[in-house]
Design goal:
Blueprint: H1 2-12, E1 16-18, H2 29-39, H3 43-61, E2 67-68, H4 73-76, H5 79-95, E3 99-106, H6 110-120, E4 124-126, E5 129-131, E6 138-141, H7 147-160, E7 163-169, H8 176-179, E8 182-183, E9 186-187, H9 188-201, E10 211-215, H10 220-229, E11 235-237, E12 261-265, H11 267-270, H12 286-304
Parallel strand pairs: 1-2, 1-12, 2-3, 3-6, 6-7, 7-10, 10-11, 11-12
Antiparallel strand pairs: 4-5, 8-9
Helix pairs in contact: 2-3, 3-5, 3-12, 6-7
Length: 309
C-alpha cells in the first residue's frame, strides 16, 4: 500500500493528504440547516451535516491529492450516526480513487490489537460470510505497548496489502514530555524510529515497507535524523499550516528524488473559507475554497521540493 501511495504521489506531484476532521463549527450554516430540517438537532442531524460537508470537499479535491485522512474522533463524537458517516466517507473516497488513511491511533496487545487491525484494515468472518468493517487502506497506530501492540497490525498489512503509520515524533507541543526523554543517551523517538524500520524490513516488498511513521512538521531537525534512521519508511507529516509547520521545514522528510513523505493539512484546507485569504469564496463556496487551498499547498511544497516537478 505504501508503494501504491508513493506511486500516486509521483503521478500527481502532490505529497498531500487532506485531513477530513469535521467540526460542527466548520460546517456552513446552510448545510446544518438542511440537515437539522431533515433529522432535527440530533446526533443524526449532526452526522448528516458532516456527510454533506465531506461529500462537497471530496468532490473538489479528489483529483488533486492522492489521499485523505479522516480522524475517527470527529465522527465518534456523534455516536453511532457519526461512525456510520465515517464508514460512508471512507467508501465514497474509495469510489473517487483516493487512498484512505484512517486516523484511529489504536494500540493494545494480543487479541485486542488484532481485533482493531481486523476491523480497520482486515476482515472478520460471520458464519459463512466475510466482511471488511471499515476498510481503510492505512491506519495510524500508537506503539506505546511495544511489539505486542504493533505486530497484529503488521500481520494484517502483510495479509491484505495494507499499511500503518506508527507514531514516532508527534507534532503537538507536549510530545517531548515522553518522546524526547533520553534512554542510553538517545531520545525515545529515535529508538521508536529504529523499531519502525525493523518492523518494516521484516515485511518490505519494493521501495517502501508497509510500516510508515508519523513525524511532525514542527520538528524538522528531528525529522532529518529520523529520515536517516528509516530510509525505506514512508513518513506522514502532520503539523503543517495551522499548527505552525512551514513549507521550508519539510525538505528533511523527503528523499532526494522527492519521495518518501506525505504532508497532512486538515482545517487549513477543509475550513479554508474561514481564512481571510479565501474569504471571497464565502460559506457556499467552502468546497471551492478548499480546492484552492489544496492547490496553494501543493505549489508551496513543490517550491521547496523541486524534484516533485
Amino acid at each position: 500500500m505504501m508503494n501504491r501511495l508513493a506511486a500516486r504521489i509521483r503521478e500527481l506531484g502532490a505529497p498531500v493528504v487532506v485531513g477530513l476532521d469535521p467540526m460542527l463549527s466548520y460546517i456552513p450554516e446552510g448545510i446544518k440547516r438542511e440537515a437539522y430540517a431533515q433529522y432535527g438537532e440530533t446526533l443524526e442531524g449532526a452526522a448528516q451535516a458532516v456527510w454533506q460537508y465531506n461529500k462537497g470537499l471530496v468532490d473538489q479535491i479528489y483529483d488533486l491529492v492522492p489521499a485523505v485522512k479522516p480522524q475517527i474522533a470527529m465522527y465518534e463524537q456523534f455516536g453511532i450516526p457519526g461512525l456510520s458517516v465515517y464508514k460512508k466517507t471512507v467508501d465514497y473516497c474509495h469510489e473517487k480513487g483516493l487512498i484512505v488513511v484512517g486516523d484511529i491511533k489504536r494500540g493494545d496487545i494480543g487479541s485486542t490489537s488484532g481485533a482493531y487491525a481486523d476491523a480497520h484494515l482486515g476482515e472478520v468472518k460471520v458464519g459463512g460470510n466475510v466482511f471488511a468493517p471499515f476498510a481503510e487502506d492505512i491506519s495510524t497506530v500508537n506503539p506505546y505497548l511495544g511489539t505486542d501492540g504493533v505486530k497484529p497490525f503488521v500481520d494484517v498489512c502483510k495479509k491484505h496489502g495494507k499499511g500503518i503509520f506508527v507514531l514516532v515524533k508527534t507534532s503537538n507541543p507536549s510530545s517531548g514530555e515522553f518522546q524526547d526523554r533520553l534512554i542510553d543517551g538517545r531520545p525515545l523517538y529515535e529508538w521508536v524510529g529504529e523499531k519502525v524500520a525493523a518492523w518494516g524490513e521484516e515485511v518490505r516488498e519494493g521501495e517502501y515497507s508497509p510500516v510508515g511513521a508519523v513525524v511532525g512538521a514542527t520538528y524538522p531537525q528531528m525529522g532529518k535524523v529520523l529520515r536517516g534512521i528509516m530510509p525505506h519508511t514512508m513518513i506522514l507529516v502532520p503539523g503543517y499550516g495551522a499548527q505552525g509547520g512551514k513549507a521550508e521545514d519539510l525538505a528533511p522528510y523527503f528523499q532526494e528524488d522527492g519521495s518518501g513523505a506525505i504532508v497532512n493539512s486538515s482545517r487549513g484546507i477543509i475550513a479554508a473559507y474561514r481564512q481571510e485569504k479565501y474569504a471571497s469564496f464565502g460559506e457556499e463556496g467552502y468546497a471551492e475554497a478548499a480546492r484552492q487551498a489544496a492547490l496553494d499547498m501543493i505549489d508551496e511544497i513543490r517550491r521547496v521540493i523541486p524534484a516533485l516537478g
